[in-house]
Specification:
4-stranded antiparallel sheet
């Protein structure tokens, strides 16, 4: 494959390029990636995040902390480099620039330096174990292929992407309100989904059992491809979290947006899929006959989804049919509720792609998403590698590499990461370090006095 090579000196501004778009064809290649890593990747902020305050001079810092974190690189031609570790931002930056990874994954903090794990294994002691890791969630829109008709697989558009927006709204509200977490980072995966990093100290220290309990708390959608009914809401009343999710988010989203954007009741096949979620075959058959009548009525195609949905709700919630009142909610949950990759959340040792990577299939940056404004997030508007390099060229690069990103459309994402996530989190980390250190000193004093 012959990629058009990009002259690094040109990017440096030695000569202003004419016709930037022509010189930078859209796509992903190693030359572009090297310039991105040289000019735009936020090494300092990234390293500060993963250090959680342990890179400071405070005597309470754990100086070995960051050096026990696993980073994994995927190089060109799917060459995997697991168990990379770095003691300083400079060492991390140097390795990235040298190896030019197509993907960077973040693993747990281990009990010992992962790069030296073999030496510890030979000692016969099983000391190489994960001891800390953010609580993470991974959601792919391809898991919703049975309820979206505009796209499939890794493809997304503005009609189906709101399913990911709903994930952010539901999980973010519960992680903060029900579990009391504060430092939560949402990141676009670069192609077809979102990742969530819960970075509070309490979250990072959860055991696998505790992680499983939290993941199970969110687990409502339990279906597989062969199961018709994938959501069962049991009990006389909904759990408060599910009730809030339904009334505050899911019901309106389903009725006002998804029903129409996906034309969920506009065809025989799609109607049948919803009718299969009704456990009483007689009721389902009755509705099917009524909907067949709709086809011969004057209901316009635009209104047919709403009309049929209202008929379904009236029938199921009339009270005539015992045990079906909850069915409307089950249908809404089946189509809209977050579908988590449970295994990723349950185990400390799972790897997850780092923020600010470039997705090799789309060329898009894995940028943070503001949960307070997630309705405004448009994946098709996320900066691409070629776009960013074009912006560097157009700006006429100066030698101030620290602020190169400020002259590109990546600026908004890095500033959000820094001001809305990183700085408040580091402030909390500093307070925790000082509090723990003071408690340790007091304990030593008490022991001496005794």
């Amino acid at each position: 494959m012959e990629d058009k090579r990009v002259d690094t000196m040109e990017i440096d501004g030695q000569q202003q390029q004419q016709g930037v778009d022509a010189a930078l064809p859209d796509g992903f290649n190693t030359d572009y990636l090297r310039i991105y890593y040289a000019k735009l990747f936020p090494y300092g902020d990234f390293f500060k995040w993963l250090s959680y305050g342990n890179d400071a001079k405070h005597p309470g810092c754990d100086q070995s902390y960051i050096g026990r974190r696993e980073l994994s690189f995927t190089l060109e031609n799917d060459i995997y480099l697991r168990f990379q570790s770095f003691d300083s931002p400079a060492e991390f930056e140097s390795s990235i620039k040298e190896k030019c990874p197509f993907k960077i994954d973040i693993g747990p903090v281990y009990s010992v330096d992962p790069a030296k794990r073999h030496a510890y294994a030979q000692s016969g002691n099983n000391v190489f174990v994960p001891v800390e890791r953010e609580l993470i969630f991974d959601i792919d829109i391809s898991d919703y292929d049975d309820v979206r008709y505009c796209c499939s697989g890794a493809d997304t558009c503005l009609d189906c992407w709101p399913l990911m927006t709903i994930v952010i709204k539901i999980l973010d509200a519960s992680l903060r309100g029900d579990f009391g977490f504060n430092h939560i980072l949402w990141v676009y995966s670069g192609r077809r989904g979102v990742h969530c990093w819960v970075c509070d100290s309490r979250a990072r220290k959860l055991t696998n059992e505790q992680r499983s309990a939290i993941a199970d708390y969110f687990r409502v959608y339990k279906g597989n491809e062969n199961a018709l009914k994938k959501v069962s809401l049991i009990g006389p009343v909904l759990h408060p979290f599910l009730a809030r999710s339904y009334t505050d988010v899911l019901k309106c989203f389903f009725e006002d947006k998804l029903l129409h954007s996906q034309q969920l009741l506009a065809s025989e096949e799609r109607c049948q899929k919803i009718l299969e979620l009704i456990p009483d075959e007689n009721v389902a058959s009755e509705l099917h006959d009524r909907w067949q009548g709709n086809r011969r009525s004057s209901i316009s195609k635009e209104d047919v989804n709403t009309a049929r949905w209202e008929q379904l709700k009236t029938t199921l919630q009339s009270g005539k049919h015992k045990g079906l009142r909850r069915c409307v909610e089950e249908i809404v949950f089946s189509y809209t509720y977050p579908r988590l990759d449970m295994e990723v959340s349950k185990h400390m040792n799972h790897l997850l792609k780092a923020p600010f990577c470039i997705h090799p299939k789309t060329g898009r940056v894995c940028v943070p998403i503001d949960p307070n404004n997630c309705d405004d997030f448009d994946p098709s508007a996320v900066p691409t590698l070629s776009q960013l390099l074009g912006e560097l060229n157009a700006a006429g690069m100066q030698m101030d590499s620290e602020s190169d990103w400020e002259r590109t459309s990546l600026e908004k994402s890095i500033r959000f990461f820094r001001t809305s996530f990183l700085q408040p989190m580091l402030k909390a980390c500093k307070e925790e370090l000082e509090s723990a250190y003071s408690a340790k000193l007091q304990q030593s004093k008490n022991t001496l006095n005794w």
